[in-house]
Amino acid sequence: MTDQGSGQRGGPVARLRAARRRVALLAAPESPRAKGLTLGALVLLTGAVALITTSGGIGAAPPLTLAVPVMLGGFLLERPALRVLLGVVAAAFVAEVVDKGWTTVRPGSAVVLVIVGAIAVELVRDRERLGLSLGRGESMLLELRDQLGRQGELPQLPAGWSADIAQRSAGGSTFGGDFMVSTLTDHGKRLELALVDVSGKGLDAGTRALLLSGALGGLLGAVAPERFLSAANEYLLRQEWDEGFATALHITIDLESGHYRLTSAGHPPAAHYAGGSGRWGMVDQDGMALGLVPDVQFGVSEGHLASFDALLLYTDGLVEVPGRDLSDGIDRLLGAAEGLIPRGFAGGATLLIDTVAPEASDDRAVVLIWRS
Fold this sequence. Notes:
372 residues, alpha+beta, Phosphatase 2c, domain 1, 2 domains, five-stranded antiparallel β-sheet, 10 strands, disordered N terminus
């Protein structure tokens, strides 16, 4: 992602409302007329295939060409319509057998068509269980993924402040469990931000991250900063997820004075770059991960960002390597962060991921905030 110091059209609230409208549109049921047209088109396609296979001569179209309308029906039809289509396909296959005989149309073709039909039925059942409109399940998942990304955008920061964010999912997956939520409070004078790492990977972690990001985004600015992680912990405990814990860093920055307050819930420590000395130092905190036990005390650190100072926040996928101590990964990250100093921090979040953990087996997220 690019430097968040630049302006953004519409603002985060307007973008999220537009995203919800698009999700609602994707989930809306199709009209009976549209369903009938879809079924009619697939029946006509089946008829055309049957005509070619019976009158076009051997090799004009193989019998398994009938699998094409069956698979399309699995993506586009509901179960009653799919049953009609399967009946038409079965009739077309029988007509081909009568026309050419089993010596040409081998029994194995029938077996393959039955298997394809069973797959189509399962596809329809999955869509109906999710309550998705016809053929739009994948589009809706992509829209939800994009909404999670939009919720992670920083608000426009005042002059003198800049930020850079980068996120990458494990194994190139579309979904991941790392996310960030942020807001400006106190009439734009204070930035409040939470970087969260949800347990698990892939789609399961991504769906939990989407739900949790909406809840934590609502808590930002609505509860006192010192109560934020406690409220987040109570929320996760109420969900009773089988794999329902998360680590988090919560930070508030006074954008006039530069004073910051950072609390941690089992998260790797942040790093503070002091422009005066030209060195990175760790901001250590203690605290248990969210969603494990009630009434937890979270570690607190306070500091000050002077001119040319920076803060580096990250998730453990950037520094954790199986069989190696976590401190080794942090040292490697700080070594890469040293290389940002001569070139500046703009674009540094992506560069850190590419340098430290380009192919890690865990989700990775980096947030850089600096004062110019």
